[in-house]
Amino acid sequence: MLRSAARFWRQTPQLYKRQAFTRDFTIAIDGPAASGKSSTARAVAQELGFGYIDSGSIYRCATLLALRNNIASDIDKHWPELIDLIGKTGVEIKIQPNSNRSLSVVAAKTGRLVVPSVQILLDGEDVSNDIRTPEVNRLVAKVASDGGVRSAVLNIQRSLAANADTKATETQGNGKDPHVIPGGVVMDGRDVGTTVFPNAELKIYLDASAMARAIRRWDEMNSQLKNKQTEEAARKQENKADTSVPVEYPSVEDIARELEQRDYADINRQHSPLRIAPDAVVIDNTNLTFEQQVYSITDLARERMGLQRKYDDI
Ligand SMILES: Nc1ncnc2c1ncn2[C@@H]1O[C@H](COP(=O)(O)OP(=O)(O)O)[C@@H](O)[C@H]1O
Ligand SMILES: Nc1ccn([C@H]2C[C@H](O)[C@@H](COP(=O)(O)OP(=O)(O)O)O2)c(=O)n1
């Protein structure tokens, strides 16, 4: 479990500075919305035994705080209040290693990867679903455009990375020499390789065509909505009161429009805009399978750690 301690770091800046860059190997994955960053980052972290931090979820938590404290509608007048709230609230990111046995069995048979799920806690409350609502989607790029919010979130991102749960593992190297995979962290977002960890050992810029990204997000949202409907049907069969809100399916066009607006805001904002770091490896995954992109990034990281590539035959 990762725990942010923004207040603690603010009070002890020297200690914070020392802790902020102590990971042995950092992988930064940036790119536009729905390019596959977070699923890829989680799978790569699982492959290497690294910690994982979803930096966008912290901006989403900040947006949820604005909505819950009724300052979202005229946010431009309330930045100091929001920054204060961010500093006072604890964010935790919990990785759930894959416990779904039937999924793992299918994966083992088909060679498909099962990605660990992630739980986001805000002062101990699980807000994993609440930070992915349409209201948060609409407001998050605006919240992430404020310089003060970005500094507050940067502190949290770095303290989560410094405290990520990871340790060195020994692996069989070339010949008889055992090698060690150092402890490390994978963080995904928009400015991880340019601002959060400009000295990251490996920087990836993931991209895909606008249509591929919209279709993937649409698929993802529809399968979540279908799960919801199945749960509702089961509740009805048990004769439990139906308190559910009717399910609405977004169209691919609506999702494409939302992604385009968010990308525009992320690329054109003044503070820490989405950019390709000069030393980033650019991967366009429009025509790659998920497994191809995960294994190629894992092998790039292994090479940079002085280890043999592992997945060339896949
Ligand atoms: N190469 C790929 N081919 C097909 N689907 C992919 C690929 N990479 C990721 N996805 C899927 O695309 C969706 C969006 O990925 P996600 O990791 O949430 O993106 P991001 O974090 O960039 O918003 C997920 O459902 C993910 O499983
Ligand atoms: N390092 C980061 C991460 C996210 N953001 C902002 C920009 C994004 O529109 C929002 C939400 O990010 P998130 O990664 O959750 O978004 P997607 O999963 O790609 O849709 O946060 C950022 O400005 N810097």
TrEMBL record:
One of its GO terms (biological process) is nucleobase-containing compound metabolic process. It holds the Pfam family Cytidylate_kin. SUPFAM superfamilies: P-loop containing nucleoside triphosphate hydrolases. Residues 27-235 form the Cytidylate kinase domain. Residues 165-185 are annotated as: Disordered. Keywords: ATP-binding, Kinase, Nucleotide-binding, Transferase. One of its GO terms (molecular function) is ATP binding. It catalyses: CMP + ATP = CDP + ADP; dCMP + ATP = dCDP + ADP. Its EC number is 2.7.4.25. Belongs to the cytidylate kinase family. Type 1 subfamily. HAMAP family: Cytidyl_kinase_type1 (MF_00238). This is (d)CMP kinase. It comes from Coemansia brasiliensis.
